[in-house]
Inverse folding.
């Protein structure tokens, strides 16, 4: 399968159209390589079983409707769309994953990941007794093959940037289940890098036309843009799971037909119901909504290297202009949770104790006056690329008026906007949730591919690179927390709220868990946890 | 006659060529970059460069156009940029489903139009005619997608649950076993297209029924039934042919909206997917195929009109009619 259209991006937000991309965790983490030393180890707990109120039942078929296209693919290492993510989560497994409630890394195919020598050496040990769908045993060779496949310089996988600390020429196989990696640079967030499906492990000699995985469901048929069918893998390594006999995933080209198919009972579940169309599902006795606040955010972005936003007082004033609850009710139809100008609320390092910032026009005015900008006029350039962006911008225009700040809102074509998305002095972004350490690398370190605020702060840099060397998770998280506080105090973006994900499903199914950790729909599309009730 | 067809064909080729130029300009020279558009805001520069190369975006525009045109003419339609399937297969599959839909729609809409149009004409200015006029006007005013959504609401999701809301045509089963998926799309298209022929046939019949020869026939005491079926109706056939052609031409565009409401895997659905994916070879080929369809339908309709219209037929036998004498193709009403 050609990688032509699948490099470098993933689409984390699937409405209103499926062509919404967020590179997020996949974009190359440019410019963070460095050398260091130290010694400790990183540890995480065993896989958590999903909380269930009733006893799961075996059997049944689940039909899910999602937005897909002829660009669909079953190659996990090159996937870019939500639809691909959904299928690959069920066909393959990753070395680690996140539970539904927080970004606390859990082991998947890996039994342990030990970081030593200041997080510059990683030892991965895989679980024993796992078999591929074709019956062959799963070994460390498959893991090494997958790393080489993703890091192939001629045809890099989507996760190549995320796994940039791995030196594929320095992988030492210790035994059939263990490999020792000498990393290119200290990387204490190494275990957190494997939760994305683009790092799914594939067998040696993988052929996407014959997709063999270790996941809960095995491949039966696949027509891009139409439908795919999977059946239960009886030898799945998680005890008891999956419960369903069969999984059918149907492609839709737009939300209207997707919702109609759920209403008429043609499909049992759909992801990402348009937020202005949830009421059609809400009123039905046989349907349920699954609502999750997963840290998806659309920040108002100010370039800290461009006047007048290089003055922290101006940035703080802008943050105080925003009526955050109004933002949620008008831009997201009420489906959102309030933000406090820091990303990644489900990360263990997120500082929940900082005071909630609220609209304060008087304070904003006096800050602007102190900064010599009493008649601030803002040229707000944005593009209509994601649900809620333009209404959010319009709410901001209204809010700013209250303080006498004039905002010239300029909505331009995405094709003109995108090639220089980090150049606009005052604009918006849209970002999926990810571990705070990864978010910092992408958005708040010089050279980070998504650094649209042009954040380049010595204190942040020191804390970040120290944290990468720190194999003590608690200490490491303290450093990430300190960075979050810096962003709260003087950062360049207004993170006014987190947009929720809303899915719909038939009440004859159980086991769908709202995923507040990643915000991925239908409980991270983990259909192994679903059963017929 | 042959000369007429040849002339019309030559014009057709010119029109299709012009369409190909316009489509090319639209897809290639719009602001921004198709590769960037496809990969989205947060694409890495490396992947954008890779895709630009893959899509030949670095070649000069004229060279790209000639490249594509020669492939098109020689039948090497190439591969979809996105799925790597051959464009011919994508177009062929879409044509199969859309063709079925269009044939069914025409077979249902044409007799309805003839019957209702004639009935209206016979009761011209009467109560029934008035009611039918209002109804057809309402249908004319409704966009196809509104009709589609209303039908889904009533028959599939909310009021009754008797038909599938979306056409989830599975490729594993033969299509004839999934015919329930064609009902709602076809019903929508019938309702969307039927008002035009009704009104045109009515107008044409009213004119015929007021003509001298019909009055004469009535004065001769010929039964009204015979007057209508033997003398009046045949004269409305030319109109029927024209409006059927008009409908086919409308359908070729109208299916785009309707197929997407129902997720029906025809050419319109393929077209929207291609546009969403910025799959330029597929977009260009589908548009050219649709343009060829427009030209051919109009040509066939014109020839048929000549054949069923005695005045023109006689003229054609004696001397080739000038282009101006032939009823011109109707403009599609979108």
């Amino acid at each position: 399968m050609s990688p032509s259209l699948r490099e470098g991006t993933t689409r984390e937000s699937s409405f209103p159209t499926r062509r919404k991309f967020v590179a997020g965790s996949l974009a190359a983490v440019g410019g963070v390589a460095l050398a260091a030393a130290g010694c400790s180890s990183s540890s995480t707990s065993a896989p958590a079983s999903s909380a269930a109120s009733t006893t799961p039942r075996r059997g049944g078929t689940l039909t899910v409707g999602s937005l897909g296209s002829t660009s669909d693919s079953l190659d996990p290492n090159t996937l870019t769309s939500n639809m691909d993510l959904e299928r690959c989560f069920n066909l393959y497994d990753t070395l680690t994953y996140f539970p539904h409630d927080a970004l606390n890394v859990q082991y998947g195919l890996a039994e342990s990941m030990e970081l030593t020598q200041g997080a510059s050496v990683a030892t991965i040990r895989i679980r024993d007794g796992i078999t591929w769908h074709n019956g062959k045993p799963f070994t460390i060779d498959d893991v090494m093959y997958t790393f080489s496949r993703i890091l192939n310089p001629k045809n890099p996988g989507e996760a190549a940037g995320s796994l940039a600390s791995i030196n594929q020429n320095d992988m030492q196989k210790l035994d059939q289940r263990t490999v020792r990696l000498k990393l290119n640079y200290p990387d204490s967030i190494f275990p957190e890098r494997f939760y994305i499906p683009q790092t799914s492990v594939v067998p040696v000699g993988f052929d996407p036309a014959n997709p063999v995985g270790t996941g809960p469901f095995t491949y039966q048929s696949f027509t891009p843009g139409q439908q795919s069918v999977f059946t239960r893998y009886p030898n799945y390594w998680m005890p008891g799971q999956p419960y369903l006999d069969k999984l059918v995933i149907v492609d839709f080209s737009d939300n209207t037909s997707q919702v109609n198919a759920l209403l008429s009972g043609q499909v049992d579940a759909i992801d990402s119901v348009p937020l202005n169309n949830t009421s059609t599902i809400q009123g039905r006795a046989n349907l349920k909504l699954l609502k999750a606040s997963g840290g998806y955010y659309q920040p108002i972005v100010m370039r800290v290297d461009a006047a007048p936003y290089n003055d922290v007082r101006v940035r703080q004033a802008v943050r105080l202009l925003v009526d955050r609850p109004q933002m949620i009710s008008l831009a997201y139809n009420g489906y959102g949770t309030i933000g406090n100008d820091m990303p990644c609320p489900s990360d263990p390092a997120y500082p929940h104790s900082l005071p909630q910032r609220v609209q304060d026009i008087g304070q904003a005015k006096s800050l602007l006056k102190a900064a010599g900008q009493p008649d601030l006029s803002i040229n707000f350039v944005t593009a209509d690329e994601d649900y809620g962006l333009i209404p959010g911008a319009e709410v901001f225009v209204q809010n700013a008026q209250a303080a006498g700040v004039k905002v010239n809102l300029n909505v331009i074509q995405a094709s003109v906007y995108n090639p220089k998305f980090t150049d606009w002095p005052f604009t918006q972004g849209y970002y999926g949730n990810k571990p705070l350490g990864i978010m910092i690398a992408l958005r708040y370190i010089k050279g980070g591919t998504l650094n649209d605020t042009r954040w380049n702060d010595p204190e942040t840099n020191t804390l970040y690179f120290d944290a990468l060397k720190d194999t003590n998770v608690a200490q490491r998280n303290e450093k990430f927390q300190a960075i979050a506080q810096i962003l709260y105090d003087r950062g360049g973006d207004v993170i006014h709220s987190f947009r929720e994900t809303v899915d719909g499903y038939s009440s004859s199914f159980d086991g769908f868990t709202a995923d507040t950790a990643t915000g991925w729909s239908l409980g991270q599309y983990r259909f192994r946890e679903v059963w017929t009730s | 006659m042959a000369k007429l067809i040849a002339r019309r064909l030559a014009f057709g080729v010119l029109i299709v060529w012009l369409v190909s130029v316009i489509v090319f300009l639209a897809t290639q020279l719009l602001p921004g970059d198709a590769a960037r558009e496809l990969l989205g805001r947060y694409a890495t520069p490396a992947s954008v460069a890779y895709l630009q190369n893959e899509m030949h975006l670095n070649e000069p525009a004229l060279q790209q156009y000639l490249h594509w045109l020669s492939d098109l003419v020689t039948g090497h339609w190439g591969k979809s940029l996105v799925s790597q399937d051959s464009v011919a297969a994508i177009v062929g599959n879409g044509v199969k489903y859309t063709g079925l839909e269009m044939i069914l729609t025409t077979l249902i809409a044409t007799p309805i139009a003839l019957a209702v149009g004639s009935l209206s004409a016979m009761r011209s200015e009467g109560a029934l005619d008035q009611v039918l006029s209002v109804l057809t006007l309402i249908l004319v005013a409704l966009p196809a997608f509104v009709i589609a959504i209303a039908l889904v609401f009533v028959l599939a999701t909310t009021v009754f649950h008797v038909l599938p809301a979306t056409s989830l045509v599975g490729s594993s089963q033969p299509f004839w076993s999934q015919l329930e998926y064609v009902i709602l799309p076809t019903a929508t298209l019938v309702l969307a297209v039927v008002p035009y022929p009704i009104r045109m046939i009515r107008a044409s019949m009213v004119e015929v029924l007021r003509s001298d020869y019909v009055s004469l026939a009535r004065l001769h005491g010929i039964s009204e039934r015979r007057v209508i079926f033997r003398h009046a109706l045949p004269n409305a056939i030319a109109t029927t042919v024209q409006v059927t052609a008009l409908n086919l031409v409308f359908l070729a565009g109208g299916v785009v909206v309707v197929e997407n409401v129902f997720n029906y895997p025809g050419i319109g659905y393929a077209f929207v997917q291609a546009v969403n994916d910025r799959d330029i070879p597929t977009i260009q080929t589908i548009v050219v195929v649709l343009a060829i369809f427009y030209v051919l339908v109009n040509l066939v309709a014109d020839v048929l009109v000549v054949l069923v219209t005695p005045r023109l037929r006689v003229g054609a036998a004696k001397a080739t009619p000038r282009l101006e004498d032939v009823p011109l193709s109707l403009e599609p009403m979108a």
Notes: Chain B has two domains: 2-70, 87-325. Chain B touches chain A through 51 residues (CB under 8 Å). The longest helix of chain B spans residues 87-122. Residues 317-334 of chain B have pLDDT under 50 and may be disordered.
